[in-house]
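Note to self: the last two entries modelled the partners one at a time, which told us nothing about the interface. This time every component goes in together.
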Amino acid sequence: MTQTSLGESVVQKELHAQAQNNGVAANITQTQPLWLLAEVTYRCPLHCAFCYNPTDYDKHTQNELTTEQWIQALRDARKMGAIQLGISGGEPLLRDDIEDIVIEARKLGYYSNLITSGVGLTEKRIQAFKEGGLDHIQLSMHDITEEINNFITNTKTFELKKKVAAMIKNHGYPMVLNVVIHRYNIGHIKEILEMAEALGADYVELANTQYYGWSLVNRSQLMPLKEQIDEAERITNEFREKVGNKMKIFFVVPDYFGDRPKKCMNGWGEVFMIVTANGDVLPCHSARVLPNMAFPNVREKGLEYAWKESPAFNKYRGTAWMKGPCVTCPEKMNDLGGCRCQAFLLTGDAEAADPVCSLSPHHHLIEKAIEDSKNPVIANQPIIFRTDKNSKKYVAGDKERIAEFHALP
Ligand code: FES
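The predicted structure of the combined assembly is written out below.
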């Protein structure tokens, strides 16, 4: 899975607006799940160093939901008010029933978005998606150089991605490129934007790496310098001026270099519902890292129970769970204490303030991470790629690398 800002990304916000314009949304309230993200498989032909799928995904790869079970989940979520459907993974195109899911999504009135690496997208399939009513395809791109593209994904996919981009355009889809930004490509922002323009992109999301899953394991290797991020943003602003409305460019500022935490997922259990490959229902992509939480599964009690009644969805809704400094903070309604997963991953306490907040007593952990990324001894360690073999090691409890990053207590 590629990265966006966790929660409703800027491109997603745009989609949301489009869906409303299409008359899909009616009587929406904030108590309904507006977004259903279907992580239909954890299988993936790419091995991205920054993937935010869980490092132990291998234990969730068995027992993928069937087509019928996905269709039921779509129906149930739509009844509850969901209007946006993201079809993601892993690489969703490794399943051969995405066409069926798309057709059902159209029937139900979803605004549907396929989030793909492009591997497996053929003329035949894209034609079927078009006929089936898929609204949107978001393609991940990695760099302008073959070398970095192939390195960071640990595959040879550079040429293929360009072909797929052209195919998406030829079929009349708006072209949405997602580029995860890290140390290896941040120096190429201008060229990446030029490539996007040449490919006819309508939207480009420059998603600075956020540190969850595999990107947390590789944090020191991937994190750019603050000066590089500032320069990348400056170039982006300049480019935006130049191209105007022809290509919408979003620059997602990384948490570690902001001083306020984000309202992660637009609030826990507020608008997002994620169904994973094996049917677990989560309020956010990373939620399974949190301790002592039992997440519901669609095979057992269904989505309505998951959203309304399950202890997991209610645990961090609102502000009742907060303690200091969040509980008395005047910003608490704006950021809801930040990200629960990040708080736990960095401090060992899921109820702590998100350490990216400058008021957090753990903020030094962020400063330390930034310092570590400048330390060649740490930053030059080999990258651990997202592979089944490495995931099996995590499942077996080999957390050495994570411990080194103080990412777990
Ligand atoms: Fe932010 Fe889980 S990733 S709450």
